[in-house]
Amino acid sequence: MPPDVVKRAGDAGAASSARGGSAEPGTVRPGGRTARVRAAVLQAAGDMLAEQGFHGLDLAEVARRADVGKTTVYRRWGTVAGLVADLLTDMAEQSLPRTDTGSLEQDLLANAELVRRTLSDPRQGPLFKAVIAAATGDARTAEALHRFYEVRVAQWAPCVQDAVARGDLPEGTDAAEVVRAVSAPLYYRLLTTDAPLDEAAARRAAGAAVAAARAGAFVRTP
Questions:
Q1: I need a surface site. Which of 48, 173, 190, 222 has the fewest CB within 10 A?
Q2: Where is the region Disordered (predicted)?
Q3: Which of 92, 115, 148 is the last residue of a domain?
């Protein structure tokens, strides 16, 4: 996965401290009642993305579903792209931490399984399809999607770095590329076929990434 998103219990990310200054709409981290409003709006936005896609996302309808005033939504997020950017930020903040088993195979299999479960989820799978489709034609959505995956890849890269330190992988292995190689087949399967994302697909993706990494396929070249 680029890694996936599976929500943690609670709303820890939404309760982060607000940033001061002239922040871009949708980027300030609120607390208290504002955090609850943000959580409700992002939940409604995610539901609508999963149901109707990016082009079906309407700020007024999001406000209605979240039981929030329209002016609040327009003032805070400004545009649909701004709302989607904040949704992706929240998803990255709330996603589960990486697994640390001490085994490269098990760590990458855990990553593949997390991606598989997310993309197979009745809500999350369509949501990701909608955001990926939107990113092809909207620069701000694309930027937010890239940031989301940068965060997730960085969270899982240490399992590869640890394998290099143990001597399980060649020196110079690009950890981020190994992590991307795990989830890439799962995303390709999601977007290009109607075949189910089963456990066998996750095992193949993780196993192929491990084999390629051990063969030196991801060693950085000058």
A1: 222
A2: 1-32
A3: 92
* Backbone phi and psi for residue 219, each to the nearest 5 degrees, phi listed first: -70, 130
Terminal CA-CA length for the chain: 26
Please tell me the pTM assigned to this model: 0.78
Burial class, 1, CB count within 10 angstroms (exposed 0-12 / middle 13-18 / buried 19+): buried
Domain residue limits at 185: 97-214
Q: How many domains does the chain have?
A: 2
| Cα distance between residue 216 and residue 203, in whole Å | 20
Q: CA–CA separation, 8 vs 145, rounded Å?
A: 20
**116 and 75 fall within a common domain:** no
Distance of alpha carbon 147 from alpha carbon 55, whole angstroms: 22
Is there a domain that residue 142 lies in?
yes
Is residue 42 located within the same domain as residue 18? yes
Q: Three-state SS for 66?
A: helix
- For 47-105, how does the pLDDT look when each residue is reduced to its tens digit (9 = 90+)? 999 899 888 899 999 999 999 999 999 999 998 988 998 998 888 787 767 778 889 99
Residue 3 near residue 153 (C-beta atoms within 8 A): yes
Residues 105 and 25 in one domain: no
For residue 31, what pLDDT band results from cuts at 50, 70 and 90? low
The dihedral through the CA atoms of 175, 5, 60, 52 has a sign that is positive
- 129 and 147 both lie in a single domain: yes
Q: 13-24 burial string, b = 16+ CB within 10 Å, else e?
A: bbbeeeeeeeee
Q: Which amino acid makes up residue 189?
A: R
